[in-house]
Amino acid sequence: MYVHDIRIAGGQVVSVFTGETFAADVLLTGSSISGVVPPGTGGEAAERIDAAGRLIVPGFLDAHMHVESSFLTPAAFAWLTLPRGTTTVLADPHEIVNVAGRTAMQWMIDAGRGTPQTQLWGVPSCVPALAGFEHSGAHLDPEDVDELLRWEGVRALAEVMDYRAVVSGDRRMHSIIGVARDQGVLLDGHCPGLSGEELSRYMATGIDSDHTKNTPEVMVEKARLGMTVMLQEKCLEPEAVQALLALPQLPPVCLVTDDLAADHIVAKGHLDHIARTAVAAGLPALDVLRALTWTPAQRLRLPDRGIVAPGKRADLLLLDGPLENFAVHSVIAGGRLVAAEGRATYEEPHPGAHPFAGSVHVAELPEGEYQWRVDLPDGRHRFRGLRVNPVDTYTEPAEIELQVTGGTVAWEGHTALCWVRNRHGRDHTACVPVTGMDLGDGAVTTTYAHDSHNLVTLGTTRHSMRAAAEAVLADDGGVAVARDGAVTARLPLGVGGVMSTAPATEVADASRDVRDELGAWGWRHRNPFMSVSTLTLAVSPTMKITDLGLVDVLARDWAPQVLDCCH
Predict the structure, then answer these.
(1) Global pTM?
(2) In the sheet where 12-14 sits, what is the strand order?
(3) Cα–Cα 20 to 30 A to 481, which of 218, 312, 457, 552?
(4) pLDDT tens digits along 430-463
(5) How far apart are CA 226 and CA 240, in angstroms?
């Protein structure tokens, strides 16, 4: 008689093909499903897992995310997210690659190898994010991308963020896309709001997915043309879901995380949280399950997973309660029980050595740091600012009138100021007023700042800004919050200024403290880490700040800092 390794007995299998739930035992041999059979049939098994009262579903796949956004190294990320049901990810390491280039890419692949989670990789397409408008720590040209796409574990050209370059025919960007097309890999997109003729021009290059926030009308337009719709948390508004459900048939949808910090994962979850968010927004639970399993498996060209079926990879979840709760009890990855009752069943791995120490090349802050100097006559002047909002990372132009005396702008007491200092060996600084939040005396400094990860300080007083910045420099990168001139929370990120080697729970505690202090200061946002860190993302609408100046994202051009003289 045939002997299997494991029998998962007494559960109810959910078919992502038919939508049915049916009683069956699932048999595992090695890393594969060797049978989905009527209860009690199919031969003997060396081990039995009792699934009585639970649903058996495929493991979740994340088709678009960034490990660095968790502030964890790849192995620690796997240890924290596997208990939430995430068994496969396609990770874009463009944060650390913008810091340290191909060395960083290789380190991330190696660091994730050997974890029970399948970690696949995309080659960052935009290093730097907006060439010619900022300085990062690395530069990838088409020849670099061509080579990196051939590395083991690489599956895609990661999100093509500089969509303005694509639609305008930029030679470098088209060459990068060209080498990816020649190799036949996936081409992932990033094109918020792109529509009409420009959308067609973008998609004509072969890019066929988008994970950014769009109006329901633009989202439907993209789906209609064959773009894979990827919905992260901020995209899951009821109006967007209803627009999809109103179509004659639901297009392929992937639920993705994109950017979730460690404290968020501990408190709310990973893909399981996105699933519950989608259900709350009105997407039926079975459609949510497909968007976590079969659809991303097809997107990632992984025919061996995404459904509970014989011959498929044994990445399986046991869920408590009704499907719409997405309450993960047990996780099996590659035929091995790796998590139960919300905890990994194996020890958290130590990340080991890394080559990124001392990557923040700022020896000390000059005495006049955060003193905004301009070549203007005394008097009141109108300056361009950035207006933020509490929901997403969209920033729009603002205007603010400030006094100039002796070439110094009197900004304290009137506005917050975002100050960007290059950390990659160049002596560049730029600043811009920031409006939209009611802030007290305080500041936040971060080297986790998309995508060049320069030293970014946002504050309302110079003494709080200096305190936060000096804490981050002392930590060789990270995030720190200061209030009333004293540091109140800090998250050291010694791995290139974007990740930590500390245990995952310690990183989660520190990121929660930073989140709480940002809120107490007055920076109240759905995702405060992303809100602050994307002020410098010069491919994200509509206006951003880099180490070289203020960028009009839609025009792909510099924006004037001084508007005109008032009096």
Answers:
(1) 0.97
(2) 21-23, 12-14, 55-58, 316-320, 327-333, 336-340, 343-344
(3) 552
(4) 999 999 999 999 999 999 999 999 999 999 999 9
(5) 17
